[in-house]
Design goal:
- The complex is a heterodimer of chains A (269) and B (277).
- Chain A is built from seven helices and twelve strands.
- Chain A is α/β, with parallel strands linked by helices and 269 residues long.
- Chain A folds into two domains: 4-110, Pyruvate Kinase, Chain: A, domain 1; 119-268, YojJ-like (1 (3-Layer(aba) Sandwich).
- The radius of gyration of chain A is 20 Å and the shape is elongated.
- Chain B is α+β, with helices and mostly antiparallel strands and 277 residues long.
- Chain B has helices at residues 2-16, 19-25, 32-61, 64-68, 72-78, 84-108, 111-153, 162-182, 188-208, 210-225, 264-269, and strands spanning 233-236, 239-246, 250-254, 259-263, 272-274.
- Chain B has a five-stranded antiparallel β-sheet with strand order 4-3-2-1-5.
- The chains are: A alpha/beta (269), B alpha+beta (277).
- The A-B interface holds A 154-160, 171-172, 174, 197, 199-201, 203, 205 and B 223, 226, 229-231, 233, 242-245, 247, 252, 254.
Chain lengths: 269, 277
């Protein structure tokens, strides 16, 4: 029992902005009733908030989630560098169970928001590809880990920077990543070597592509293999985003402009 | 008529009963038509009750309760403590009962009923059809309105709010027209109005969507045959670049500094030149 909550009160006092992550209607209403104007970060604006940042993926990593919310708010001109914000979010449960005090700094711009919102492909397409990769990472093939590489957006340029390894199974097909049939195809996906090329609107243009970017000067963390190197390099040569499922450590990584932006563990979803 | 029927019944009884029994039944003869009427009413009640419960089960099996859920018609009849299924089921049942009542009255020999009976017999089914058409029209109109409304929800344009109600009331209008024609009301003027309305919708639509329709049909051809694919270098008319996207209405062609949105009909009218690698 703690009889003097004042001892930790300085965590929640003197903040410029309150961020509610996926709040319930009653929580938001009680904030509004107290004449506060919280920023809501959620998959959909169900509570009818004025300041709202759409969360495309329920990031399990709390830091990623806060970074996304803050970046989105900075992008919309709600917060500025130097301001102090208080994030109310769920760490163990989906409901809010924690408050985190953060000072907005330039270094918080990790590019997660930018990855989703300011890429060539539509945000929903990038989200769908993430979901496909996460699912593939969870399932694997017959219990064995599998790897995959998706190049999303700027498909015309990507196709011109790559060559086919074999016949394209997606030729004259019109499958989009969000389609239910993609879930069925997941198992087949993992058997195919090479990269998947996905257009701005989410159409799976090709698989079995061998990427041929110039990898000169691409700097990715040591220990990652050829697949990640190819992914990083193609995003530098084109305006595409690359999402990679690693066969060795099972993580999903996203690259943009030749840099590693986001790392997710499929097992956490 | 009733007298004839009563005598016939009596003579029918006479052939099956012995003279002794006939004597005992003599005072009951005047009551035979009344008893007959009662039996007919009972049978009618049973038949209509069976019909109602059969209709109800049929409608429920067909999934009517789920499909009318949330429509304005269902909500307004709920306020009177009934549901769409109940109304539709009862319509047939009540009609059957009315038929039995009329039948019973003819056996009683009420002359006025006997005289109008053929007309009523011909009119009742049409009234039933009219009522069903009206109810179905109201529900379908509601449903279509909701469907269009949901489709347009993504478009954040307040003016589109007019479209769902237009769709809804057009459907109801047509249903009302059919119902009125069923019961024999003169509907010529209303039909002319409908024709004028439809003609104007078609003409306006053809004018407004001419380019979209032409591009859409060209787009279908392009998607099915895929003469050029994403990544190909093409020239359509005076536009040259790499294909980034092909959808039903347009092809996105990107050159070094610009993205062109080429309507698909241009691909057919101007032709496409694909650069060889």
């Amino acid at each position: 029992m703690m009889d003097s909550p004042d001892l930790v009160a300085d965590i929640v006092t003197d903040v410029d902005e309150v961020f509610l992550f996926s709040p319930g209607q009653s929580l938001y209403d009680s904030f509004r009733a107290a004449d506060e104007r919280p920023v809501v970060v959620a998959p959909a604006n169900d509570v009818g908030a004025e300041s709202f940042v759409e969360l495309p993926l329920s990031f399990r990593d709390v830091r990623d989630r806060i970074r996304f919310g803050v970046e989105g708010a900075m992008n919309a001109g709600i917060t500025r560098t130097g301001e102090t914000i208080l994030a109310v979010l769920g760490v163990f449960d989906d409901g809010p169970d924690a408050t985190v005090r953060v000072t907005v700094a330039e270094s918080m711009q990790s590019g997660i928001y930018d990855l989703f919102v300011n890429s060539r492909a539509e945000p929903s397409v990038i989200r769908d590809v993430f979901e496909v990769s996460i699912e593939l990472g969870q399932k694997g093939q017959k219990g064995n880990p599998v790897g995959a590489l998706f190049v999303v957006g700027d498909a015309g340029k990507t196709m011109n920077n790559s060559r086919p390894l074999s016949y394209n199974p997606f030729e004259k097909s019109h499958v989009h990543v969000g389609d239910p049939i993609v879930d069925v195809m997941l198992k087949e996906f993992s058997r195919l070597d090479g990269a998947f090329v996905i257009s701005d609107s989410g159409k799976i243009v090709s698989s079995y592509r061998y990427l041929e970017p110039s990898a000169e000067g691409v700097d990715i963390p040591k220990g990652l293999g050829a697949r990640h190197m190819a992914a990083a390099a193609i995003t530098r040569d084109t305006n595409a985003v690359a999402i990679v499922l690693s066969e060795s450590d099972g993580l999903v990584r996203a690259f943009k402009s030749g840099e590693l932006i986001l790392k997710l563990d499929p097992e956490a979803y | 008529m009733s007298g004839v029927l009563a005598t016939e019944t009596a003579s029918a009884l006479a052939t099956t009963l012995t003279p002794l029994q006939l004597d005992a039944l003599e005072p009951l003869v005047p009551f035979v038509p009344l008893a007959l009427f009662g039996v007919i009413l009972l049978v009618g009640a049973a038949v209509s009750y069976a019909l109602i419960s059969f209709n109800r089960r049929l409608l429920e099996r067909l999934g009517v309760p789920e499909s009318v859920e949330g429509t304005a018609f269902e909500r307004s009849v709920r306020r009177f403590g009934v549901s769409t299924v109940t109304i539709l089921a009862r319509l047939g049942g009540y009609l059957a009962f009315v038929v039995f009542v009329v039948l019973g009255l003819t056996t009683l020999g009420v002359d006025s009923v006997t005289a109008v009976w053929p007309a009523v017999a011909a009119f009742l089914p049409r009234l039933l059809v009219a009522a069903i058409v009206l109810v179905v029209g109201l529900i379908v109109g509601d449903k279509l309105g909701l469907l269009v409304d949901e489709r347009l929800r993504g478009v954040k344009l307040p003016e589109t709010g007019l479209v769902p109600s237009l769709v809804k009331w057009s459907t109801v209008y047509v249903a009302a027209l059919i119902a009125l024609a069923q019961v024999g009301v003169a509907t010529t003027a209303l039909v002319v109005l409908l024709a004028g309305y439809l003609a104007s919708v078609i003409v306006l639509g053809a004018v407004a969507f001419r380019d979209l329709l032409a591009s859409g049909s060209a787009g279908l051809y392009l998607l099915l045959t895929e003469p050029y694919a994403i990544g190909d270098r093409v020239r359509i008319g005076d536009v040259e670049g790499v294909v980034q996207e092909v959808d039903v209405f347009a092809t996105h062609v990107e050159s070094d500094e610009e993205v062109y949105l080429v309507p698909n009909r241009r691909a057919l009218t101007d032709g496409v030149a694909r650069k060889l690698d």
